[in-house]
Write a structure and sequence with these properties.
This protein is of the alpha+beta class. It has one domain. It is built from two helices and three strands; from the N terminus they run βαββα. Strands 1-3-2 form a three-stranded antiparallel β-sheet. The radius of gyration is 17 Å and the shape is globular.
């Protein structure tokens, strides 16, 4: 079920906006579903945004994502630069 007027709900509900398709898939695979999805359309950027209601389950899954995502390689001092 999508909530189309989430900004009008009183009292306000804490939400989490996801701009990453990979994270959105990870959340769905962990049974966390968005309440709303829209296309962010700027003159130079057009991308999907998924909106989730902030809750303990979402926090736990986001922590798993953060703990397990690959770290970017250090370009300046990476391996083999000695």
């Amino acid at each position: 079920m999508f909530i189309r007027n989430i900004e009008d709900i009183s009292p306000p509900i804490k939400t989490y906006k996801c701009f990453s398709p990979n994270l959105a898939i990870f959340l769905t695979n962990n049974n966390i579903l968005p309440v709303y999805k829209y296309i962010y359309n700027n003159s130079s950027i057009k991308k999907y945004v998924w909106v989730y209601i902030m809750c303990d389950d979402l926090s736990k899954v986001l922590k798993q994502w953060t703990d397990n995502k690959p770290q970017p390689k250090n370009v300046e001092g990476g391996e083999g630069n000695e």
